[in-house]
Amino acid sequence: MGSKKAVYKVATGRAGVPGAYPTVSAALSAAYEQVPDDSVPVEIRVAPGEYRERVEIARPNVTLVGETAESVRIVYGLGAFMESGDGSGIDGKLGTFRTYTMFVDAADVTLRNLTIENDAGDGREVGQGLALYADGDRLVVDSCRLLGRQDTLFVGPLPPREVKPGGFIGPKQFAPRVVGRQYFRRCLIAGDVDFIFGGGRTYFDGCEIRSLNRNMDVNGYATAASTPEGEPYGLVFRGCSFTAGEGVADDTVYLGRPWRDFAQTVLLDCWLGPHIKAEGWWDWNKPAAHEASLLAGGKLYGPSASMAAWPEWAHAIAPADEERFSRSAVLAGDDGWDPVGGEDEAVETARLSDNGRTLHIKTYFEDEPAMRWRFSRDGRSAAFEGSSADDWLAWRDRCRERLADLLGVSLLERCDAESQVLEHAQVGGGITRTKMAVLTEPGVWMPFYLLEPAKPKRGEDGRALCWIAPHGHQGAGKDSIAGVMGVPAADDAVRRFNYDYGLRLARMGYVVACPDSRGWGERRDWKGQGDDEQLYLRGTCANQAKMAEPLGLSVAGLNAWDLMRLVDYLAARGDVCMSELGCFGFSGGGEQTLYLAALDPRVKKAFISGYLYGYADALLHLNGNCACNYVPGLWRLFDMGDIASLIAPRPLLVQSCEEDHLNGPRGLANVDEQLDVARAAYALLGHGENLAHEVCPGGHHLGVNNLEKEIAWLDGQARKDDER
Fold first, then answer.
1. Domain range for residue 62?
2. Is 381 strand, coil or helix?
3. 26: pLDDT confidence band, cut at 50, 70 and 90?
4. How far apart, in whole angstroms, are the C-alpha atoms of residue 683 and residue 677?
5. Is 375 among the domain residues?
6. In this predicted structure, what is the pLDDT of residue 233?
7. What CATH number should be reported for the domain holding residue 169?
């Protein structure tokens, strides 16, 4: 394969994106023409927007990647009952296999961070409508949304013969029936009838399979496999959640039915919602399939997990046979293909709550008891203790002066960085994920994930290179940052914001610590505890602030303190290269990175995304932001650029998005003003080259297209500074 990658950009309207193509198809056509050697990888980067077009990928080694799955939508609306226009097809209709929004007919294609949708409508009115027609080998579909109604996703090949002549009319009607391997990871696939179907060898890893409502006694079928006779594998779902859209009644959806007699559909470590019928499968009136098919499950969870009512011709996978359906076994083929590597990734479907989208947490590491103890110990410590009017007047003057000048002095008590190991799990790519907790002050524990690659990058002292990756808002705390699989609500956050940056760093070879901040994840205050999706995704910063601020504390200060204690823990381990320690954060994680790097010189490099702008526009005007942004007395002393200046001369990369609402009404001008303050400090110290700024298209999200280069730049600058 060629060593050079050709990159093409796509942007609706092309405004502000020099050289970009207006459609995905136009960029692909240019790639086909300009890079005729199909061994050279081609990458198509798609900017946020809706692209109403049909896309065909007929060249191998193509990667089609959007900024985020929610912001990049490729949509079309053809249905099988629509007129073909040329009289072809049964009764002059399009038929199923000419309705696709996207058609992949090549090997080694990757689709990432995209929504691919067929919005033709209800299949009872418009017929089948494919969103994605996938018929290539070694296809990877990662963090995408595939949306439709009937027949949303087809994984080729077609069966050998039609039931009705002309039923397969379309691009592969007369092509050889070659079984391809497809890997779907962290995808949302939605539809109603047979919305995942076909004969491919396909592995669904940590996906959400969402059934939509048709208001019928039999509301739909999730799958319809047509595995060719003699093939060892068909559709394999592992760590997937079978959920239901609004209005879908309980006990109305079949897991699947055999489109052809040798159908194979296997579910392992999956969560089944109450909409799944107790009998699980329907034979489609194909008695031969009772012996020829493999419709099976093993280690199922959720309200419909019981296999007691399954028909006798359905199968239960014994624990001893589960290894046969591992990712590496299913996808290996003759060339040993494994798009991830390592053991099967740990999934959390066994711990999903009754809604199927959030983790059910039994024990919360909340800090209210410690706050109450501190209040009882320190509350009213400056109360009046005199006995005369003159004593009271003197006390009043002193207190007015103290309140007027108040910034706050740390009342937190340092303690040894005591730690405990809570659990271990394996992550794809040979990464070990350990859940731990570290004591940050008496009575307060901070849980965190430690991601450790099998072969981490090492510094010049031979110790592992490490990043701290604090989280922001709307992402379930550390769960999305660490890329925990099998939790649909967290997966939504990943698809929306590229929120799994801790896992991305680990896959680059770094040890990564992903902590829960105060009031988040397993540290939520009692008002935010429970399985409700919004409670799970969001934190209780406002509650923490109302407890902390009357005691002279702030949430921002508490989080910075906790991160400094995490640095203590990493230093005490002895296996972390402290001379190159980094901190990486997006949004609220960017705020934590800002304060930690400004306060603690042990942090040698910093990446701040979606959080560096002037207070007046972004926090005073937009005053509905989270309470963790507000520090009593801070604005009288500093703006954000002044705090960023405290990081100088250490390497700092700031990332902003053009349409990020958090920038305030003046947009990037509000960012540039603060960067100018920091730039002046870097220039004064003779290290102007150590501050970089990247601007990404679209709204509030982490840009990842240049992430590896940017991390390498930070590494290089930090190493140069250490050598100086």
1. 6-351
2. coil
3. very high
4. 10
5. no
6. 98
7. 2.160.20.10
Place of tokens 């990247």: 694
**Domain end position, chosen among 351, 373, 393:** 351
Q: Does some domain include residue 569?
A: yes
What is the percentage of the chain residues whose pLDDT exceeds 70?
93
Mean pLDDT (whole number) for 363-390: 68
- Whether residue 646 is contained in a domain is answered as yes
Least Cα distance to 558 among 528, 592, 605, 527 occurs for 592
- 534 & 632 share domain: yes
Q: Is residue 465 in a domain? A: yes
Instruction: Tell me how far apart the alpha carbons of residues 204 and 345 are, in angstroms, rounded to a whole number.
Output: 12
Is residue 393 scored above 70 in pLDDT?
no
Partner residues linked to 128 by β-bridges: none
Following CA atoms 617, 619, 620, 626 in sequence, which dihedral angle do they give, to the nearest 10 degrees?
160
Q: Looking at this protein, which amino acid is placed at residue 103?
A: F
Full-model pTM: 0.89
Beta strands 6-10 and 466-468 are unpaired
Domains: count for the chain? 2
> What secondary structure does DSSP assign to 618-637, as a single string?
IIIISTTS-GGG--TTGGGT
Please state the φ and ψ torsions of residue 30, each to the nearest 5 degrees: -65, -40
- Which runs of consecutive H residues, i.e. helices, occur in 474-616? 478-481, 488-497, 501-507, 533-537, 541-548, 555-573, 588-599, 615
Predicted local distance difference test score (pLDDT) of residue 723: 60
- Region 169-181: what's the mean pLDDT? 95
